[in-house]
Design a protein that fits this description.
The protein is of the alpha/beta class. It folds into 2 domains: about 30 residues; about 260 residues, 3-Layer(aba) Sandwich (Rossmann fold). Helices cover about 55% and strands about 5% of the residues. It contains 16 helices and 5 strands. The protein has a 5-stranded parallel beta sheet, sandwiched between helices. Helix 5 packs across helix 16 and helix 6 runs parallel beside helix 13. The longest helix is centred in the first third of the chain and has 29 residues. The radius of gyration is 22 Å and the shape is globular. The N and C termini lie far apart (about 55 Å).
């Protein structure tokens, strides 16, 4: 009798395991939770998002970029619904309202601090995965002298270390085939929850459980004192001082490592006949002067725009700085609030709809 009880308990446990894993898979792939913004820190999260692009049967748009694409700065300023206000969600709402494009999916492939050298790999991988169009931002920050040296050229250097073999295959981790790696690969191939654990932790905990616990113990007292409080003024000042040092060394040129990476990306997109939108990240008009001399900012801005315009075509759309984005739509010197993202989405959605209407990326 006892053995039957053990077998029944084991069967119940396996049934619960399968049910939970199926629910996780449904949330990630069918409800498209994987499309939402997280700060991509790991290969597992990155590869899971590429898999979503590959699996989606309808048109797919990959939005690639730095913290302005991630949009998490809104959360730091008290927006509890920030994930519904990011540029990818705003575009998703507009495409879903179009009967001809309601099956389209917009996937956020943003990562805080991402540079053109990172975007070069992400753009190629997204198109290989089957994205029908890509959208990426270009920021004046990327052309700081800080990022014009090999050891600091990439914010996510693991992107360059992924193995890329067959023309139609997604990138993969190419660590040595140790016993532990083979075990992890076996688990990942059959266990959706395990395969997407990094994404789930980042999405629902804001990082690993250790990071979440650290954040909780650091900010809970402040939250209990004032639930609606945004980041303290001290944090803003530290961010401003760091940005000033970086922006003052901005100097766009064809020799800059990031300009070279941007050129390779645009050459690849144009050569592949892919559909893309590149938008210049408008700066806060009242704060950019605190970071660098206005004349220097304008000189570099015009150089970047002239460089981008050289690639403009029917398939490769360039969106310049938006004068409608006045200071009231910014949270700091560069990051937009929800209304700012809405304005940006208005300018991106029209050319995006046109590109998707003629896209022919085989699924």
């Amino acid at each position: 009798m006892r053995i039957w009880l053990w077998l029944l308990a084991a069967a119940a446990a396996i049934g619960c395991f399968v049910t939970v894993d199926r629910l996780v898979a449904s949330n990630l792939y069918e409800a498209h939770a994987l499309a939402e913004a997280v700060d991509i820190e790991s290969t597992d999260t990155y590869l899971a998002k590429l898999e979503l692009i590959r699996r989606h049967p309808g048109p797919v748009v990959a939005v690639i970029g730095d913290s302005q694409v991630v949009g998490e700065t809104m959360a730091e300023h008290g927006d509890r619904s920030w994930r519904s206000h990011t540029i990818d969600r705003q575009l998703q709402q507009r495409l879903s309202a179009d009967p001809a494009l309601k099956s389209a999916l917009v996937v956020n492939l943003g990562a805080n601090g991402m540079l053109p050298a990172d975007m070069e790999f992400v753009a190629r991988d997204a198109l290989k995965a089957g994205a029908d169009a890509i959208i990426t931002n270009v920021s004046i920050r990327s052309f700081s002298a800080d990022f014009d040296k090999a050891e600091a050229a990439m914010a996510r250097p693991w992107l360059a270390r992924l193995c890329r073999d067959a023309q139609d295959a997604l990138p993969r981790s190419c660590d040595e085939a140790s016993w532990s790696k083979r075990t992890r690969d076996l688990l990942a191939s059959h266990w959706v929850l395990y395969r997407n654990l990094d994404f789930l932790q980042e999405r629902y905990l804001g990082g690993s459980y250790r990071e979440a616990l650290h954040t909780l113990t650091r900010f809970l007292p402040r939250y209990l004192a004032d639930p609606d409080a945004a980041s303290p003024p001290g944090d803003e000042l530290v961010l401003l001082f760091r940005a000033r040092a970086r922006f003052q060394s901005v100097a766009f040129s064809d020799q800059h490592l990031q300009a070279q990476a941007l050129k390779r990306t645009l050459d690849f997109v144009r050569g592949a006949g892919a559909h893309a939108i590149v938008f210049y990240s408008t700066e806060n008009p009242t704060q950019i002067g605190q970071l660098m001399a206005p004349a220097k900012a304008e000189e570099n801005r015009q150089k970047i725009l002239s460089f981008l315009q050289g690639y403009a075509s029917e398939k490769l759309v360039m969106v310049p700085p938006l004068p409608e984005l006045s200071a009231r739509f910014f949270l700091d010197f560069m990051h937009l609030d929800a209304d700012g993202y809405r304005i940006l989405a208005q300018h991106l959605s029209q050319p995006l709809a046109r590109l998707l209407a003629v896209s022919a990326n085989p699924r």
